[in-house]
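Many introductory courses stop at the sequence. We go one step further.
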Amino acid sequence: MTKAEEIRVLLVSASPTALLRILDVPGISVCSIADSAAQSLPLLPALQPHAVLFADYVGNLPAVLQSIQQLLPLSPPRILCRMEEGCLCDAAFDHAMPHALPVLLRTACSDAMGVLALPSFDRRFGIAQSLLTRLGMPQLLGRESIALGAVYLSAMPQPVPPAQHWLYPLLAEKQHTSPAAIERRIRSVIESTWLHGDLQAQGELFGLTVSAERGKPTNAEFLSLLSEHIRLKLI
């Protein structure tokens, strides 16, 4: 791949070291680094980046985006930011999963894929909760763990590593418990849903993917299929 074919990224981060390692992949070139949004704006006309990656929270993000549009009206860069601010940008990432950034950058910078830019965390979480309600999942501790887990999985490039290696520890940290407790909560609420939930919705959403011998999906099967339904509803 030639330099002309690489995605040029302006990285805006006060602590860029870890992100530079993640973005050190074929097809992506970090053309400059700025400590803050204010510092990044004067760099834009000369750099003409394909994307601007805001790795930290941005104060008054709408004003910053308007300034970028004014500086580069003919070739505005794609804007990537944290999930919490994602509804304002072309793509959003969760700070707990920065390894997804190369895929997000390629997607956001593709003319054919630009319309599929990732929505905000809130929208994904809302879709997850709606699907769980449709299944008749009770309001137990494991329900929130499942919704959060499916949101994270839905934003991950495929294939994803096994949940026990990264997802359970991540959920445990956010919910102030242990990975083993997260695994038990998820298993318990799935069992309760398959015993007392909406059988028709279970069949419509999970079909023949559930083993007749087990009678219910495993944690991994449930999370994977739920995340896929989230992705489908975003298209």
